[in-house]
Design goal:
By secondary structure, the chain is α/β, with parallel strands linked by helices. The chain is 48% helix and 16% strand. The relative contact order is 0.15.
Length: 253
């Protein structure tokens, strides 16, 4: 995940629900592929390799000897039964979850939908200036006001709380739509440090960043403001009443 140090606490139920959907998706995908294959051992080995788990580690998690697991993967035994497949897949999942669930998110087709992360995304038919966008979202300048006349070609509004759960480095690219010369707005922000940390460490930068959540500039994290200055990125605090008003103001362009 690209926002590992974000301050707001995420609902435990949200995390559990998200991972439950991913686990079901990946379990069904692997088990179905094994059951339908003419060479199930090769499929078992393929998924173990994809998860980057050694034969010894997986065998230990399953409670079998590495030689038994090796025999199955090399098709030296009869096709694995349902109980064995269940243990095999569950052990893959449990090991990956202990490591942070990286491959679960990578292989889940459910993970590919970011509808609950990207709240709005659009490209402008003609460029708008950073100053025009700041005014539209009732923005207070935190840094980079000297770039107010720079052109911006689109916007993306994201839910930063869901981004903590859902996004990894590969997904971050999807925030940019058709171009990176855009305004990226992080909503549900507490202080604003983590969004700017994410922007700083990712090689592709948005043209402008805004946050929504803090009630006043004094509540915004000073490090986030300093990072925006260093990156020469216009940084604005939107004081729109709510996220809907914020999105509505952008849809007028």
């Amino acid at each position: 995940m690209f926002l590992n140090n974000v301050q707001p606490v995420i609902s435990e139920n949200t995390v559990k629900s998200y991972y439950r959907d991913i686990v079901y998706d990946v379990v069904n995908r692997i088990a179905g592929e094994v059951i339908l294959s003419k060479h199930p051992g090769e499929v078992l080995k393929k998924w173990r390799m994809l998860f980057e788990i050694s034969q010894t580690e997986l065998a230990h998690a399953m409670g079998v000897s590495p030689s038994v697991l090796s025999d199955y993967e090399k098709n030296r035994r009869q096709s694995p039964g349902v109980a064995f497949i269940r243990r095999y897949v569950n052990s893959l999942i449990e090991i990956d979850l202990r490591r942070g669930g990286v491959y679960l998110r990578k292989f889940s087709t459910a993970h590919r939908s970011l509808d609950d992360v990207i709240l709005a995304i659009s490209e402008f038919t003609s460029p708008k200036t950073a100053g025009e966008l700041a005014e539209a979202i009732d923005g207070v300048w935190l840094a980079g006001e000297e770039y107010a006349n720079d052109p911006v070609y689109g916007y993306t509004v994201i839910d930063s709380l869901m981004a903590i759960v859902r996004l990894d480095a590969n997904d971050f690219l999807r925030l940019f739509g058709q171009n990176s010369m855009r305004l990226v707005i992080f909503t549900n922000v507490e202080r604003g440090r983590s969004p700017m940390i994410a922007v700083r460490i990712y090689p592709i930068k948005p043209k402008m960043v805004a946050i929504h959540g803090p009630k006043s500039p004094e509540e915004v994290d000073k490090l986030g403001i300093e990072l925006a200055r260093r990156e020469r990125i216009p940084y604005v605090l939107s004081q729109k009443r709510n996220v809907k008003n914020l999105i509505d103001s952008l849809s007028m362009f």
